[in-house]
Amino acid sequence: MIDNKFLIKLSENLLEILNDNEYCDIVIEVGNDPYVKIFRAHMNILNYRSTYLRNILSANKKKSDETLVQIKLTNILPEIFHIILRFIYGGTISLEKYDELDIVKILVAARELSLQELVVHIQSFLIKNKTNWMELNFNLIYQTSFENNSFLELQKYCNNLISKDPDKILKSLDFSTTPEKLIISLIQNDKLQMSVIQVWEHVLKWGLAQNPELSSDPSSFSKNDFNSLKNTLRQCIPFIRFHNLTSKEFSYKVLPYKKVLPKELFNDLLIAFLNSSPNSKPGGKSGPQMTKEIGINDHSIDGLFEWYMKAAEGGDIDAQTNIGFFYQNGIEIPKDENKAFKWYKKAAKGGNVDAQNNLGDCYKNGTGVPKNHKRSFVWYMKAAEKGNLNAQTNIGYYYKSGIGVEKNIDKSIYWYREAAEGGCEIAQFNMGCFYLTGEGVRKNEVVAFEYFKESAKKGYSDSQVSLGFLYNCGRGTEKDFKNSIYWFEKAAKNGDNDAKCNMAECYELGIGVGKDEIKAFELYKESAENGYVGAKFILGYYYINGIGTEVNKKKGFKLFNEAAGRNVPNNLDYDSVSDVDKVNYWYHKVAEEDNKLALYYLGEFYSLGKGVRQNERRAFEFYKKSAEQGFIDAYYRLGYIYSSGFEIGINKEKAFDYYKIAAEGGNADARIALASLYARGEGTEKNTKKAIYWLTQF
């Protein structure tokens, strides 16, 4: 019989050996630059506890001198290896102490180090105690478990969950990181309860997520774009039951992507849908169709148009809507917006919700009819009341902006909320904005974060930028530079110039990435060339100062003027020039040798968001440069940002230091702020006497 108390004592003694460097004979360098940590250990223990380390050590025999053996482990994080090393010595581990992501990292590291007993233990622990978390992070668990055959229990868990509830898994995925194998496993599952059109939409979203350079609008696709998407979806297409679609679903959701489908399959579908009514299913085939690409004549599309036209002339409102869509988009017929409007109007008056929404679009954009926002509002409202998400979003916009109707924030929020709850990413973004600013609702950054997150997952770039900003500042969520960079990069790949500018700032200041002024310059340049005004000002500043590029003041001044939309004013009459003219003026002044005042004023404009988009970090950098040249008011502003900022982390000690410099230099606001810190004991020891002293120095 084994007494556990002896094992416990043995474990404690072995851990004491680990902490004692006297008899260590090996140095282990763990991690990658710049995050590397050195560990000291004992070869005999490592040799018998890990076959992986045994193999490494056999190739790194100790020399005859007293030099320690040195090995490197670059694939493991130092903090994870520290946990693993304690397990190797002590034989115990308390997984309850660690968060779920760290446990997964420990699992992967244990597998690499061939610690099979730990691999088995961690898998069992996750399955017994962390099922909710694993469902929410299924992508990660699935990819980790199928990287190799070491995690058989997790593989079994994943397969069981897919079999049990494929719908839930498919709806929860982050498509940008979902492997093809998982998508196919889900869509071919017999227990999948989604409609065929929902399956197709999810597969499309996954395909587009693998090709972030592609637009979400297939009408803008080039031949290469279609080929890229076709190659991505090639293995998924055979498992989609296209024959179970209605002809309306086929026309609106599949037809625009016809070049993605194998030609024989498309020809087969086209013939089937020609012989069915717009809202019926052709039937016949319900299982996966393995097809070969063969020739097909494009005149089959004309046959579909003619069939719709015949039904439309017979009064079928769905067919009338489809005819309008064909004319508006020029699908295999000459584009004719006037005829599109005519058919939409017929179908809208007959009660077709999509046509009512499309008619609202026509009046809004002047498609086939003169612009008329009041008429647009009327038709949007008809469609919105019947649940059309696009119409609900537009009604929200009209009420918010007072277009076509009297401005009403409460009604705007109502309709945006309806569309957001229905899943519209644009409406979700707008709801996020309401909660972030507190306009019309009680300000709640946590709720704003959730709205932005849902919208960002659907690929809406404005939300991706906002989500990156919130992660960057720690608003509505914990500060997380890694996630901030992730979402900025997502939006940048979608062509968002604001995101490119944010990414440039991250590289400029080393926020979440290594500092790289050349990379920052390139991103600012790309954003500026696409017309983003904010990037033009910064790019001009880079040229003036030779940051990430050679000095070129001529280019810098030109960019300043382009950003302002006109040449710099000769003098600064604050009553007659705009804020952007003032920004332009002070950017020009930065090029002068004594530029501390110019730097300070640029800090003011970025701090207040006047003439440029509000940017506390940019303001901080300008204030800092001004302060370095001895400008006292800039010290006060730095203190203020450290005391109450939202992008720069609050640091009362630094606030105190800057306030003290400014106060001693004569800044009245700094004296009051310094007295307040002394009175409350923030950033320094509480000292009422000194608080009174600074309050009386006027």
UniProtKB/TrEMBL annotation:
Q: Which Gene3D superfamilies match?
A: 1.25.40.420, Potassium Channel Kv1.1, Chain A, Tetratricopeptide repeat domain
UniProt xrefs under PANTHER family: ERAD-ASSOCIATED E3 UBIQUITIN-PROTEIN LIGASE COMPONENT HRD3, SEL-1-LIKE PROTEIN
Q: Which family does it belong to?
A: Belongs to the sel-1 family.
InterPro entries according to UniProt:
BTB/POZ_dom, Sel1-like, Sel1_AlgK, SKP1/BTB/POZ_sf, TPR-like_helical_dom_sf
Q: What protein am I looking at?
A: BTB/POZ protein
Enumerate the CDD domains for this protein: BTB_POZ_ZBTB_KLHL-like (cd18186)
Q: What species does this protein belong to? A: Rhizophagus clarus
Q: Which residues cross the membrane?
A: none
The BTB domain covers which part of the protein?
24-97
